[in-house]
Amino acid sequence: MQTPQCTTLFALVQDMQENVSMERVVFTLLQRLCTILQADRCSLFMYRQRNGMAELATRLFSVQPGSTLEDCLVPPDAEIVFPLDIGVVGHVAQTKKMVNVPDVTQDPHFSPFADELTDYVTRSILATPIMNGKEVVAVIMAVNKLSGPCFTSEDEDVSVQGLRPHPYMLLLHGLLAAVLR
Question: What is the pTM of this model?
Answer without folding.
Answer: 0.81
